[in-house]
Write a structure and sequence with these properties.
180 residues, mainly alpha, 9 helices, 0% strand
Length: 180
């Protein structure tokens, strides 16, 4: 699932509750190191074709990704949240991100108990790999986003949903194009 969808579903689930922004922050939190690393690498002149390798597969950036996608990081957030509702909301959003990633990553599955182990569970579904049902996943995600966005009574919800839907539909547009 794309980061934009993680954020939208977090927003949708909170429906304007006080701690909604904190849950949304948690829902996108595991992907924030990738955005920071990507921006840093681009600013330093790294070619766009090399970004994925630099951000996800090498050095400190790789370790940050592993830590952010570890259930141990989420558990640490949860332990510090015992008496703070905002931290609990961040931890809940973070956990939702990890659960959805576990369901939608195959070749790029995260080792959820890193650094204790590098073992990964590969989902039979991948949100981006055609050989692992990405077209079906993307279509289902787009239908769900369309229904949720259309029925959201809040302007911010409809706007966020439209953005998430545009991002999620991009792979379908590529698949449906004559050159694909």
């Amino acid at each position: 699932m794309l980061t934009s969808s993680h954020g939208y579903w977090g927003l949708r689930l909170t429906r304007g509750r006080d701690r909604g922004p904190w849950l949304v922050l948690g829902a996108v939190g595991p992907d924030l190191p990738a955005f920071g690393a990507g921006l840093t690498f681009r600013a330093s002149g790294v070619a766009s074709g090399e970004l994925i390798d630099r951000v996800y597969h090498r050095g400190t950036s790789r370790r940050l990704q592993l830590a952010a996608h570890s259930a141990l990081a989420c558990a640490g957030l949860g332990l510090t949240a015992a008496s703070d509702a905002r931290r609990r909301a961040v931890a809940a959003g973070w956990l939702s991100h990890l659960v959805i990633d576990a369901l939608t990553h195959h070749d790029d599955a995260w080792p959820f108990l890193w650094p204790l182990t590098d073992r990964r569970w590969r989902s039979p579904v991948s949100y981006w790999q055609a050989e692992h049902h990405s077209r079906g996943w993307t279509l289902a995600e787009c239908v769900a986003l369309t229904v949720a966005t259309a029925s959201d009574p809040r302007r911010v919800g409809r706007t966020a949903g439209a953005i998430a839907l545009c991002c999620a539909a991009t792979p379908l547009l590529k698949v449906c194009s004559p050159s694909a």
